[in-house]
Amino acid sequence: MPVAKAETRKTLLDAARRIVLAKGYAAVGINEVLADAGVPKGSFYHWFSSKDAFGEAMMKSYFDDYFATMDRIVAQREKSSAEHLMQYWQYFYDTQAADDCQGGCLVVKLGAEIADLSEAMRVTTKSGTAEIVDRIERMITDGITDGSVSVVDTPRATAESLYDLWLGASMIAKIHGSAGQLDRAMAVTRQVLHV
């Protein structure tokens, strides 16, 4: 794909992410995304067969960026696995505490909405969140190996429980407009990981 074409697709997906984070998926029209991206109306169907396909591509793009952030955290060889884990949770905290706790996580923003509206987006989100949990599990396992982390349950169960905790805390933080629930999630995370 030529650079200009790839940039057009990315521009559309980035514009959609910004708008959808503010409004939700169902409330956003394709014309609004095209106008924000500065892309001609006819270009949309060159890239995407439908709004549903567009939403699926937006979620995949979001997860790709998220995984890249997680990978950058783990790539810091001078840090222990416990430090990697806590840097990841701090990243999660900072993302969700932004904009008066309106956050920047599409999973938190769209999880329930897309589960009812789009099977393709639901499956993409299910796959993406499973990969996040896989990466958290690997960090926990690495932490047990290097002695910087200890957990009572299995690394998998711990990773699932912590991710669920943070998703729930993020939702309550949005409702309350306060980071208090995120602060509690951080404290519980430290206790669970013994760091």
Number of domains: 1
Distance between the termini: 46 Å
Fraction of helical residues: over 70%
In sequence order, what are the helices and strands, one letter per element? HHHHHHHHH
Give the biggest beta sheet.
none
Question: Strand content of the residues, in percent?
Answer: under 5%
CATH topology: Tetracycline Repressor, domain 2
Quickly name the level 1 CATH class.
Mainly Alpha
CATH superfamily label: Tetracycline Repressor, domain 2
Count up the helices: 9
CATH architecture group name:
Orthogonal Bundle
Average pLDDT, rounded to a whole number, is 91
How many strand segments? 0
Radius of gyration from the alpha-carbon trace, in angstroms: 18 Å
Protein name: TetR/AcrR family transcriptional regulator
Domain HTH tetR-type: 6-66
Organism: Amycolatopsis rhabdoformis
Keywords: DNA-binding, Transcription, Transcription regulation
Give a quick precis of the structure.
By secondary structure, the protein is an all-alpha fold. The protein has helices at residues 3-23, 30-37, 44-47, 51-74, 81-101, 106-117, 119-146, 155-176, 180-193.
Describe the structure.
It comes from Amycolatopsis rhabdoformis. Residues 6-66 form the HTH tetR-type domain. This is TetR/AcrR family transcriptional regulator. Residues 29-48 bind DNA. The protein has helices at residues 3-23, 30-37, 44-47, 51-74, 81-101, 106-117, 119-146, 155-176, 180-193. The chain is mainly α and 195 residues long. The chain has a single domain, classed as Tetracycline Repressor, domain 2. The radius of gyration is 18 Å and the shape is elongated. The chain starts with a helix and ends with a helix.
